[in-house]
Amino acid sequence: MDRLLYGAAYYDEYMPCERLSQDVEMMKKAGINTVRIAESTWSTCEPQEGVFDFSHVERVMDAMEEAGMGVIIGTPTYAVPTWMVKSYPDVLAETRKGRGIYGPRQIMDITHPAYLFYAERVIRKLMECTAHRKCVIGFQIDNETKPYGTAGRNVQEKFVKYLRKKFNNDLDALNAEFGLNYWSNRINAWEDFPDVRGTINGSLGAEFEKFQRSLVTDFLRWQAEIVSEYKREDQFITHNLDLCWRGYSYGVQPEVDHYEVAKCLTIAGVDIYHPSQDQLTGEEIAFGGDLMRSLKKDNYLVIETEAQGFPDWTPYDGQLRLQAFSHVASGANSVMYWHWHSLHNACETYWKGVLSHDLQENAVYREVCTIGNDFKRIGSHLVNLKKQNRVTILVSNEALTALKWFSIQMHGGSEDYNDIVRWMYNTLYHMNIECDFIWPETESADMDAYEAILVPALYAASDAVLERLNCYVEQGGTLIATFKTGFANEKVKVSHDAQPHILNRCFGVTYQEFAFPKQVKLTGESLAAFSDKDREASVFMELLMPQGAEVLASYEHPNWGRYAAVTKNTYGKGSAVYIGCKTTENMLEKIFRETLPETILTEEPEERFPVIVRKGVNDLGRKVYYYLNYSGQEQNARYAGTEGTELLSGRHVTNGEALILPAWGFQVIEAVFPS
Amino acid sequence: MDRLLYGAAYYDEYMPCERLSQDVEMMKKAGINTVRIAESTWSTCEPQEGVFDFSHVERVMDAMEEAGMGVIIGTPTYAVPTWMVKSYPDVLAETRKGRGIYGPRQIMDITHPAYLFYAERVIRKLMECTAHRKCVIGFQIDNETKPYGTAGRNVQEKFVKYLRKKFNNDLDALNAEFGLNYWSNRINAWEDFPDVRGTINGSLGAEFEKFQRSLVTDFLRWQAEIVSEYKREDQFITHNLDLCWRGYSYGVQPEVDHYEVAKCLTIAGVDIYHPSQDQLTGEEIAFGGDLMRSLKKDNYLVIETEAQGFPDWTPYDGQLRLQAFSHVASGANSVMYWHWHSLHNACETYWKGVLSHDLQENAVYREVCTIGNDFKRIGSHLVNLKKQNRVTILVSNEALTALKWFSIQMHGGSEDYNDIVRWMYNTLYHMNIECDFIWPETESADMDAYEAILVPALYAASDAVLERLNCYVEQGGTLIATFKTGFANEKVKVSHDAQPHILNRCFGVTYQEFAFPKQVKLTGESLAAFSDKDREASVFMELLMPQGAEVLASYEHPNWGRYAAVTKNTYGKGSAVYIGCKTTENMLEKIFRETLPETILTEEPEERFPVIVRKGVNDLGRKVYYYLNYSGQEQNARYAGTEGTELLSGRHVTNGEALILPAWGFQVIEAVFPS
Amino acid sequence: MDRLLYGAAYYDEYMPCERLSQDVEMMKKAGINTVRIAESTWSTCEPQEGVFDFSHVERVMDAMEEAGMGVIIGTPTYAVPTWMVKSYPDVLAETRKGRGIYGPRQIMDITHPAYLFYAERVIRKLMECTAHRKCVIGFQIDNETKPYGTAGRNVQEKFVKYLRKKFNNDLDALNAEFGLNYWSNRINAWEDFPDVRGTINGSLGAEFEKFQRSLVTDFLRWQAEIVSEYKREDQFITHNLDLCWRGYSYGVQPEVDHYEVAKCLTIAGVDIYHPSQDQLTGEEIAFGGDLMRSLKKDNYLVIETEAQGFPDWTPYDGQLRLQAFSHVASGANSVMYWHWHSLHNACETYWKGVLSHDLQENAVYREVCTIGNDFKRIGSHLVNLKKQNRVTILVSNEALTALKWFSIQMHGGSEDYNDIVRWMYNTLYHMNIECDFIWPETESADMDAYEAILVPALYAASDAVLERLNCYVEQGGTLIATFKTGFANEKVKVSHDAQPHILNRCFGVTYQEFAFPKQVKLTGESLAAFSDKDREASVFMELLMPQGAEVLASYEHPNWGRYAAVTKNTYGKGSAVYIGCKTTENMLEKIFRETLPETILTEEPEERFPVIVRKGVNDLGRKVYYYLNYSGQEQNARYAGTEGTELLSGRHVTNGEALILPAWGFQVIEAVFPS
Hints:
homotrimer; alpha/beta; eight-stranded mixed sheet; 19 helices; 31 strands; globular
């Protein structure tokens, strides 16, 4: 990419009045150089079956082209027109709750031939109309695609065929692996296969969800292939991947295999929404960014992020600017708002865009102007930021899903897979240790490139993955894993040998029992200085019995006192740390400090959250340092690089120089000499 | 009406034993002069299709006639007999949740021809049997009617016809006004109209609810017309209107247009239930009463209110009496209990009547006797109380529904339309400022008669209504409106000019952004004496930018400090106050004191809640003052009228005389000379 | 029974690997002598319709027989195979929520002929294969059977026939008794009978639930009769009855008439699960045990109880042992764990058995070994423990169901029937007063054998039952009943004479009103020493008016002060205590102390919870005393029996000797001489 993309989703067709030229003017003034259009306009561009009208797309492309702005074309397939549902009611997905009713977006069966037939036709028509246009810089296929719970007869029949293939037609093998004898769920003939929507079998249930994720991969690959027939070399294909949603972008997406989907994209794209005002921390910006950057080991696009957003997100002065630069500091090559104008009808009226409902300049627009013009001015120093991280976190859809079926929360616990991921991630973030992500599918060579792998709650994994991790340690790596790792295989069958399965070798520890920690603290020689509150164990507690490992902490409790809580083991050339319970973040930080390789710890900046430090190398081969203040109070930092230039002010900065960061402010320093 | 009606719903057909003559004796002793019968007896009076048996109605009328008591006849249509559902299962409404199952009352489709056919026949038969009876003083059509969520195919087809008419068959206009382009919801042919039950479009959804309310109006008008064919001149037609239910009668009824329904009634009727014991405040009695009195600008009937009610309503000594006189003080011409005896079966067994399950005299019955005999003695001084209030509150079903679709609560707020209405109302109530209600449909002349109009959260309103309010100020009125006023039009399309739409002219203020107040206080010169707690902002916060208005209060907050919170503007001959956030009641009281016209403030009694003062003029043209003590402690008051008589004791009272009000007690003073 | 059964449910067919001989070895080492098998294996033993394969049952029987262990055979009918549902989808029960989807167990219609046909065939085949085997000591018919909400057309037609019979075809009688006139629910022709799933009529609803309970009785009797055709004289028939489930075994089972079902069993069986760790109290062990022992007035089997159970149940050291001996102390002749090994798949993976997932010896297994070997050693002194209690508690499914339909919780209360039962039971338990249970159906002679009957909230009961209780007092018994007793008849029609119906004679008290106690305390001469907290009234409050009874406590409250709260009355030769509200446990203990017969109070041990004392007479005619410490701290006790032997240690113990009970520890002392 040759410049930072700065822009917004633009919905000319939602406008309550003619605004196009005025909007273009306002955008240009703000330094906006890209709009995303067309992605939810099926009923507008195909008003009746086979009748096409792309005039609303054309007119926007015309205007943008004239203004010298870029356009991302979204295929319009994530919301179907009324006529399709009227004629083919069963394009709406049949889920556990039955068939949906028309109204919401994203409720169709993405495997249904009628849907696919119409989708293909409208995509091709749209491509014919847009792909050759100069202003069109790339394509977004569909939007935030999910399986939408599709589980009708057709889908279930596909699933049975999938299982027959997976198990080489061997039903006994399936019964054994999934443990279907339990509660008489055994299936003795393929034609007896029951409605999977009712299953209580976690192996079968998780497998069906894996199958549903594969439907998303297939669907997006199919769209990418169609688009590829039309697109120019210089045009990208992306998708608006989104994270697990908890009112904001929280964690690993349970319903989509990001790793697989990314293969059909030329660049990863994402939407990142996050708390704001006093709750703005940058955690989601960094988390989502690191995840996206890791997918294709390259820069990525932020396709949507909040401008004003909800009333509890209305940004304070400076926050929007801090956010924009934070995205870029994580390796984003774009910052695009959802959306340009606030909607006057329908349902997302309070998810406000850059402009308020009055469509006039406002506080947010004015801050957008400063960002856009900064990007214009210094963007060439910021774009294509590359990182070489030494730490990575292993995340897994299989583990997430399995830990949903066998939830910690079921009998008293309080957290799920993503909470454990975020606990590890946030601790690194607050320490200013940058990291990447890997997946079970990541190739060994890529895995071995890291000096430390963190493994949150890898509840379900194949023996092969566990053996590779074991081997990684043996060959000199540092592995830090939490409770619930290595418990079940990829079919969610719990191992019947010593826990953690296979990994007990490298960890030098095993356990047979576990409980919920109630008034349990960690204790150990090195914890003398820790407060009672900092020593609290929470969420889940495995009763560890070292088999050679060193005990870093034990449980303080009348009955559980004889068990270890955190252990460290030397194995081969490497070292492996096992954390048997959820700890406080301070405790985890201490564990990291004691067990991460020196090479990592010596690079750790002296700043800590709320000052966030991000680094990378730019297109000029120079190192760039971001010092970001995630607080409403002025903060101090110290520049750690070699002689440099603060890019916004042009100020010269020397190593060790004190930096003053205003509330929600930041500095970006580029080393003078290439590293 | 020539006397206060005092009575109860009477269910002879629910009695576990023969009780009629004994009940009549007990009623007479208690001073009860009216019973309401027949309103849920369809299965009894038409045991099989076309077979009629009104003997249970006749025998009660006979007994009451002999005892000289009046009877209100309820049409029995709100609960259908089993045979109807057996033969025509689709008389049960199909709702968002599907078709109902027989059992509860009020689950039928009030538009279904089969239901209407049978309903008309049984009403006519009942009228033939009752209308000519001397004891029958009036009719209640149906009971607490609602649309019951009816949304089956037939209803939706009616709705589409309604829309075609409303939009002159112009689908493009509908798409534009409702913003259906969003998420591809655009409808390009009438025959494509999707099932409205699934819609996520707030404009379409709110319009359907408005349509559903019109079904109630149509249904009740139709019943009223049938009854009118039979009724005598001296017999009234009423309906048991009920308020928004939150375990008690809370606010504006969302599912019925009271204003429209009232047109087909000769007198408004209402049920009012409220917390009791230590929670008894009189707020609901006053609120419901003021609303009902305003509907037809006349006295009204309290058709149902609690005797013992639920276990948490079992009244303390004196409370029932205080309640009865409070109803009359608001302009009620009746106090009727639901119900005479407690039920021994079914489901409302714990909603206890005057008599407990043992059907004997009890504490409540003994208090009823004192009330009944007081009414007999001094009722002619109490009946037909008239009021001439200077303040009114504008309430709107459209605003309520729109603010449900775009709920403040959606992303962190905590209140809805009725909470804001009650906040304003309760503040006036506690200040002893009596008020009326008006609706968007109220005629201009009626509106102009008031010196001040309060407008809680008029979220959706037509331009015409907003222009009228603007004009009201211009011509000298005082307008006090809250946040969320004038945001969207009556189709729930948000205005795309300066907020508040149109009214920004009279308010001299606008805003572009809003947020939820978190640790935000109001601040201003005149607030120095206010405690931190009293200065808290809550619920929602608009960031006001004065365009000429005087700032009464600003926000105290690191980021929002530059915005105004409460403003006052002189516009034409009048003045307009805008309140940008929810405040404490003390703060709102202060705003009222600073901004209401002097004429109102000088009339304000010196008493404050828990002493409530109500006033009016009786049939003798004399002013009547109620001093009501809503507390368990003795209270003092001071008589503000001219030379008068305390009606219960006959005691002579002079202006300025100190009144001692016992716990849950009261005094009623009639001025000696007509005013 | 000639020995204590000690064992576990054993699922060879769920094992992830061949384990049989190893498991048998481990069991023998642990002193386990019994396994329960086959109860959820239908899909394994009848893999396709009419194809039978019992090899997995045979091989376990072979192994157990060789090892000298006993086997309990469970009929496999509580979970149906996939082929049955595929061919006959309507064997799945149709409930209020519609037809179920295959997956969970216990979702079939237990009245459906297709289900019954296949069930009978598989039971007969299983019996043919197992009944003659030497190792088979008994049979468990089905498992934790319930009606599963079955309410399809077929079931409802049966219900109407049941009503026609009950009311001698007299529909008017039914309408009158159930109060169906209410809300027009009157049924005027049998063919009009509406879908009972929608009813709001508590009488009809409760009757349908009673009918559903009768389906369970019929179903289990039918299974027992089939099994009886095959079983030997020495083989028992039992069922795994379970209690009301609140995450553990809490109270009276609402969906099954235990009293009726027990008639078709040769010995009662039960599962008892309970909180553990710091929450272990023994309450559920004692409650469930007393209930089961009372069913057939004999010893009973604990068929399932927790080994490790859920993570919050993982036992502390000693707890498993304390639990096992507590079961036996209540009269259990077996302690059987659910289950031997932890499951590796499906859904109960975290309901852990004796062995953890690694199938190796662990902490729990080691404790099981000590228990098993103790039982082997001294079991003959423990088995068949008999009790002769003087106090009994009357419990009733009818009352429970009626109090669900007319819930105290509906308008502010916080408890239900079982909470009131457990309040009374727990108070006795903490006082170490052992008790039995009786039912409304219990014969008069059995009832009269007790010196005191406690009656928690007997909300619905026939006149006959109430007359018998009245008569019981008249003839010298002590009756202690709580609020909500004697309110409605067995058809849930509230009495229309003085409350409590009939019993007001023996209690010498009546009431007409009730309320929820809010800041209400009990007050009375004898309560001077009680703290404010101990005097609190809660849940519900009847306003008692004594008609001759002595007032033990009144309400302390500005308005309710004139009413009594607890009364005591001498009636005939006996005495009757009425408790009008929920009190603290300390208060209830005081009431018991003041009102229970001296014979009971003089026998009361001096120990109180957490030291629990249980007694009985063993097969040798000797009295056995259990001193159980339900706490994590060492406790003292004093041996109250005559010269004895502590059975575990063989130590000689004399009357009055001090006993030291370690944390979660106990002593078992057998008197030397027969009593």
